[in-house]
């Protein structure tokens, strides 16, 4: 009887985790992230600020990977789209007094609309042309943010009301952690549907997908729009967390940081970038702050690590994860990652 109850409970737990797009190991790691502020020295304010921004980058890498990893389009204008969400929410709060809790969703809609229009114009193109066009759109957005000083204050910076009336970073960390989880669930659920299957088919072989009855342009535009909508939502959080906005947020180097995390974590996995973001970006931040006399050294390191990953570990850190399936402790590991035999 006890064994039956145990199996029933395990089945319920398994279905619950599957519904949340988590494995036992993923749930454990999420709990660790939630408890991290209670572990010294992560509870310090400066560490909480780092961790909040890292969680933002982790969520951004998931949205970026939805496009780069599934339909094989690198959105070099990603940071600018995120910046559009930031400025939209910020300006609504500053000019119209709209609460940031609503503004971040309006910013998401604005970014989604621009993503849709950009997708319609560019995603009929193939290969590098679509990526370059997305980059040009990003450059145009950044140029507008710099030149429209009367609206955005340009490089002077736009003062923005914060999301909550607290100077502590810990509440923002937990808000961002929830947004990270929501981003993952939305993207993972999307890739589990027939639409996600179409994304994968297009990314692997667009001509074969077209022959099978898949409309590449339609699905690419849907994918791109969803990715940009999430970017705008995350950008709204960034605006009301930092409290000040400058056009530097929209620079291509910010996209490169997200790209590096997504590719080093494992392109096409969604979770790979989010997983690798925390240890990797903490290390990069320590290097950057320790080598303040060498600005941009972190981007050089990103480039070197990306080259090494592409040569020696094309699947990213996620490929190491799957290799454990074939180790002597395979049964335990398969349970922890929710692996099921075909």
Largest β-sheet summary: 2 strands, antiparallel
| The CATH architecture | Orthogonal Bundle
CATH class value: Mainly Alpha
Q: What structural class do you assign from the helix and strand content?
A: mainly alpha
Content of β-strand: under 5%
Distance between the termini: 30 Å
What's the total count of β strands?
2
Q: What's the rounded overall pLDDT mean?
A: 88
* Low-confidence runs of at least 5 consecutive residues: 1-5
**In angstroms, what is the radius of gyration?**
21 Å
The helix-strand sequence is HHHHHHHEHHHHEHHHHH
Using the coordinates shown, work out and report the CATH topology. ABC transporter involved in vitamin B12 uptake, BtuC
Q: Helicity, in percent? A: over 70%
What best-fitting shape do the alpha-carbon axes yield? globular
Q: Which oligomerization state do the chains in this entry correspond to?
A: single chain
Number of separate domains? 1
Strand order, largest beta sheet: 1-2
Query: Treating each run of at least 4 consecutive H or I residues as one helix, how many helices?
Result: 16
């Amino acid at each position: 009887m006890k064994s039956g109850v145990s199996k029933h409970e395990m089945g319920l737990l398994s279905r619950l985790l599957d519904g949340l797009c988590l494995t036992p190991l993923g749930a454990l790691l999420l709990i660790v992230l939630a408890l991290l502020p209670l572990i010294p020295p992560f509870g310090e304010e400066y560490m909480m600020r780092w961790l909040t921004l890292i969680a933002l980058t982790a969520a951004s890498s998931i949205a970026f990977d939805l496009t780069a990893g599934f339909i094989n389009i690198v959105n070099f204008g990603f940071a600018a789209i995120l910046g559009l969400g930031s400025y939209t929410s910020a300006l609504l709060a500053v000019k119209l007094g709209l609460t940031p809790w609503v503004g971040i969703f309006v910013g998401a809609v604005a970014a989604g609309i621009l993503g849709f229009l950009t997708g319609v114009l560019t995603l009929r193109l193939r290969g590098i042309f679509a990526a370059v066009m997305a980059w040009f759109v990003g450059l145009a957005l950044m140029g507008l943010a710099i030149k429209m000083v009367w609206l955005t204050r340009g490089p002077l910076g736009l003062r923005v009301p914060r999301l909550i009336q607290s100077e502590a970073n810990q509440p923002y960390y937990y808000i961002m952690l929830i947004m990270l989880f929501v981003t993952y669930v939305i993207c993972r659920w999307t890739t589990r549907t027939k639409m996600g299957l179409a994304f994968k088919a297009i990314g692997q072989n667009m001509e074969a997908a077209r022959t099978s009855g898949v409309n590449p342009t339609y699905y690419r535009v849907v994918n791109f729009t969803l990715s940009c909508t999430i970017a705008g939502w995350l950008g709204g959080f960034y605006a009301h967390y930092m409290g000040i906005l400058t056009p530097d947020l929209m620079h291509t180097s910010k996209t490169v940081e997200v790209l590096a995390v997504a590719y080093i974590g494992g392109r096409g996995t969604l979770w790979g970038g989010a997983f690798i973001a925390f240890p990797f970006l903490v290390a990069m931040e320590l290097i950057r702050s320790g080598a303040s006399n060498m600005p941009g050294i972190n981007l050089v390191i990103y480039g070197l690590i990306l080259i090494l990953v592409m040569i020696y570990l094309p699947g990213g850190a996620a490929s190491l994860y799957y290799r454990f399936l074939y180790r002597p402790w395979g049964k335990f590991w398969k349970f922890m990652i929710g692996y099921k035999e075909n």
